Give the backbone structure.
Amino acid sequence: MLARYVLLRLSNSSSLEAYLRRARMAAPLVRRFVAGETIETAVQAVQALNQRRMTATLDYLGENVTNPADANEAAGRCLQIIDAIARERLDANLSLKLTQLGLDIDTGITIDHMQRILDAADREGQFVRIDMETSGHVDRTLEVFRSLWLTRRNVGLVFQSYLHRTDADLQNAIRDGVRVRLVKGAYDEPPTIAYRRKADVDRAFARQAELLIEKGVYPAIATHDPRLLDNLKQYIRDHNVPSDRFEFQMLFGIRRDLQDRLVAEGYRMRVYTPFGNRWYGYMMRRLAERPANLWFVLKNLVRP
Ligand SMILES: Cc1cc2nc3c(=O)[nH]c(=O)nc-3n(C[C@H](O)[C@H](O)[C@H](O)COP(=O)(O)OP(=O)(O)OC[C@H]3O[C@@H](n4cnc5c(N)ncnc54)[C@H](O)[C@@H]3O)c2cc1C
């Protein structure tokens, strides 16, 4: 618990980020969780996933940009991903973060970028998923989403089970027919806003996943938790839910064994595949989820 807290706090440290990027000691860990720095390496990773009968969602790493030029650059990358998916005939779509497109600067800029991205995706018959970030961004993310939803349908959201507000948000999303990815939540949130105990988060996740499978529009159930997955599979069998009504999702490099097993059992599996050189925040959140991963970094540090 303490390690998780410390790692999530450090995920905001620009000096540690600069140090780790220079030192390259995190390289083996980055390679494990990130599909390379370029779109070409990411395309190869998706082709390998497609061969394993999995789909992918590509993510150009980056978040919390503070100037419009960086937001513009990230929007351009998103358009390149849409092109690459179409050109290479990948079974994949795009995930992105709104703070990468300027949400901390201005919602208007973000909406403009999103409209361009959704229009390009629509021309190629593609869907775009908006990741959910810290609790301080949820209302603004929903505001941008509502504005896009007025005229577009190829966009979906993520909700985090650890937030107390999520039961209510999910009811609205289900009512409006919004495609939802359900996750536990990856940020450090205070107890007034979020459950802190794993048992409470897991209980909320199980309840919300069942609700989405029963009433949602093609929900994505995103977890590596074997116990939750076993219980959900039981629920799906008990209620005769067809396996094309939903999909499971996991992160690149995490529990590949479980990914393969679910596919072999006939379930749909989409792998979130991040690439690019702004891997620091993403990697620190993966470390916080499983501090044992730190050994990768430490072993590399002491290696002569
Ligand atoms: C496809 C996808 C998209 C996501 N998008 C978002 C998002 O938009 N916003 C957001 O806040 N969060 C997002 N997350 C992260 C999510 O909130 C969790 O932090 C993350 O999935 C870990 O939770 P878990 O459900 O796997 O369960 P946990 O209880 O954390 O872990 C269960 C088991 O999974 C394995 N495991 C989990 N994490 C790791 C790891 N890092 N390394 C190795 N093994 C691990 C371990 O075996 C562990 O025992 C996403 C996750 C996925 C899978």
